[in-house]
């Protein structure tokens, strides 16, 4: 479930994720594999973190950007950077170990 | 005026600049664990990683090597092969599915440490008789072959450059 608000006059349409109802299954998720791999993070790690319960922190300057904190199945604590690219579209661009 | 879409590099740079500024971030929201089943590709990927590690382990044992699967050992070590007390070689197993292209990621390069790439053909995934292709590199040599490249490298092309006919022999010969 997402809320779309339009800032009139600027043509800027931030899409806000309703994280409290977030279900990864409802989203088209893409990855910057290269940037993630640079921190030894795989797509599987990202998906495990999302499934295991997360803390989400929104950037005030760019409302479509979030830090996502959680753990993989193996207990590895990760912080991931995600951008909301559209309704039900997320892109994980990078991340690192916490 | 429509805002230009930033590249991932630009977004990353802005996020990194904001990381040390708590005022740039809202309060954390807790999202409980998902109740939906995980996508098939996620569970399959994890299984294939284990399958790849066990494949390498299995072949090493066929050659009589004292090989052991490690559990979350640091330093990119998935398998150790003990040669004598205090002397071992270590192997980092990487899994590729349906491709021989590998996103270069940090790996340990040191003496007696190898990187084994296990390549699964997507069309053979359901066939228990099909064995994956394996390419094993001495980690130091792999680092030399990759050089300063970033992004994707073709493992099979690198293997040709390595010029080893029998990947297993270099491990077993070293371990023996």
Walk me through this protein's architecture.
The complex is a heterodimer of chains A (98) and B (176). By secondary structure, chain A is mostly beta strands. Chain A has helices at 33-37, 43-51, and strands spanning 2-4, 15-17, 28-31, 54-58, 65-71, 77-86, 89-97. Helices cover 14% and strands 42% of the residues of chain A. Chain B has five helices and eight strands; from the N terminus they run H-E-H-E-E-E-E-E-E-H-E-H-H. A five-stranded mixed β-sheet of chain B has the order 2-3-4-6-7, with helices on both faces. Chain B has a two-stranded antiparallel ribbon with strand order 5-8. Strand 4 of chain A pairs antiparallel with strand 1 (29-31) of chain B, so a sheet runs across the interface.
Q: What's the helix-strand series of chain A?
A: EEEHHEEEE
**CATH class type of chain B:** Alpha Beta
Backbone shape of chain A: globular
**How can the largest sheet of chain B be summarized?**
5 strands, mixed
Structural class of chain A: mainly beta
SS strand fraction of chain A: 35-45%
Percent in strands of chain B: 25-35%
Largest sheet of chain A: 5 strands, mixed
Query: What is the terminal separation of chain B in angstroms?
Result: 69 Å
The chain-level mean pLDDT of chain B equals 86
Please tell me the total number of domains of chain A: 1
What's the architecture of chain B in CATH terms?
A: 3-Layer(aba) Sandwich
